[in-house]
Design brief:
The chain has 379 residues and is of the alpha/beta class. It has one domain: Rossmann fold (3-Layer(aba) Sandwich). It is 36% helix and 24% strand.
Length: 379
């Protein structure tokens, strides 16, 4: 692995505190924790985890850039789909994991122009730091925007998540000659180390054996993401769950050529595959198994309303019409927007790897975001 940028002393001390917390958790659990627990603590431990501590994560000065930070065209296009759902349900919008609040801002701005503003825009955000940043940005829309600490008991309208599922803890499973093993973490000789334990029963074992992969494969199974969709299904009375993220259908996700899985870490725009480096300072993600997401929804009473790549979804939602609002003759405005649209749509950038999936209840009309390019057959 190439060397990463060195953190300053205060930031390094923060990482050492996070590592100490994880180490104590390992010791309290007889010297071993599943990787999903390591990932949960590294990302979400109160005050120390990557997403719960107050460090810059998004944009050019952070660790990665998401679509809403690339261009307002993303949220403004998505507003067309949101408007259709709001019209059908007469409900509200609930965004989970809203980042810096950029998507909410662009979405509400465009919905205002379409005269389709929801009565309420809820944001479920566990990070106190990100919540404060969102509140500052979304001040023009107060008091329409409300922040939640937990999911509501019931909801109608649009539930939205952009790059939420990829940040949920995953279990690592190794397929060996004598069975399937769960990869876990120990603390030995002053460092975190991998240690595998054989699986013989349980939910993780059941999912692993169904995949029937050849020995030598190591990959992820996202039980937390499945559970999250089940929770959303339980509270949704009428409306749509729309998730946008990077990932594949199951046959592509677990292709034998992807023998080391998809686990990836991001630190100051450097990507690598060592989750034990600088805990609390780096993002740890895995691609989304969209087949598992669809199955979780279907098994909890939802309908699959569409699955396509980001390029088709944004084109169906009118991104080219939005781009056409800017005159090509005004090059200072048009050329940056065109470059942003290219990044969102190009298959070599975000257009193909990123997908949109819609699960719903009580929806009787086809969603405009999936009018062309449906890829449900690939789930």
């Amino acid at each position: 692995m190439p060397p990463l940028p060195a953190p300053d002393p205060a930031t390094l001390a923060h990482s050492e505190k996070t590592a100490g917390l994880i180490q104590r958790d390992i010791e309290a659990n007889d010297g071993w924790i599943p990787f999903s627990r390591f990932m949960e603590l590294a990302l979400y431990a109160p005050g120390l985890g990557y997403y719960s501590a107050g460090m810059n994560k998004f944009g050019s000065s952070g660790d990665f850039v998401t679509a809403p930070e690339i261009s307002a065209l993303f949220g403004r296009s998505l507003a067309r789909q949101a408007a259709q759902i709001l019209t059908e349900t007469r409900g509200d919008i609930l965004e989970t994991g809203a980042g810096l609040g950029r998507l909410a801002f662009d979405l509400l701005t465009e919905l205002g122009q379409l005269d389709q503003l929801p009565k309420r825009y809820f944001i479920l955000e566990i990070s106190a730091d990100l919540r404060q940043r969102q509140q500052r940005l979304l001040a023009p829309f107060a008091p329409r925007v409300t922040w939640l600490d937990a999911l509501p008991a019931s909801f109608s309208g649009l539930i939205l998540g952009n790059e939420v599922l990829d940040a949920m803890p995953v279990d690592l499973v190794a397929w060996r000659e004598d069975g399937v093993y769960q990869r876990g973490v120990t603390w030995e000789n002053g460092e975190f180390q991998w240690h595998e334990r054989k699986l013989a029963s349980g939910e993780l074992f059941d999912h692993a054996v169904k995949l029937t992969l050849p020995p030598g494969i190591v990959s992820e199974i996202g039980l937390a993401a499945r559970g999250f969709i089940a929770s959303l299904a339980g509270m949704l009375e009428k409306g749509v769950i729309l998730m946008l993220d990077y990932g594949f259908g199951q046959s592509e996700y677990y292709h034998p050529q992807r023998e080391t899985g998809t686990l990836m870490c991001h630190y100051r725009h450097h990507a690598h595959d060592d989750p034990f480096t600088l805990p609390g300072l780096q993002d740890i993600t895995a691609h989304v198994d969209f087949t598992a997401i669809a199955e979780a929804g279907l098994s909890h009473g939802l309908d699959l309303l569409g699955y396509t790549n980001q390029a088709y979804f944004l084109l169906n939602c009118g991104i080219t019409d939005l781009l056409a609002r800017a005159s090509p003759e005004q090059t200072n405005t048009y050329l940056p927007l065109a470059a942003q649209a290219q990044k969102l749509l190009n298959p070599a950038e975000m257009g193909e790897l990123f997908k949109a999936i819609a699960l719903g209840k009580g929806m009787d009309v086809p969603l405009i975001g999936f009018a062309r390019g449906d890829k449900s057959r690939m789930l």
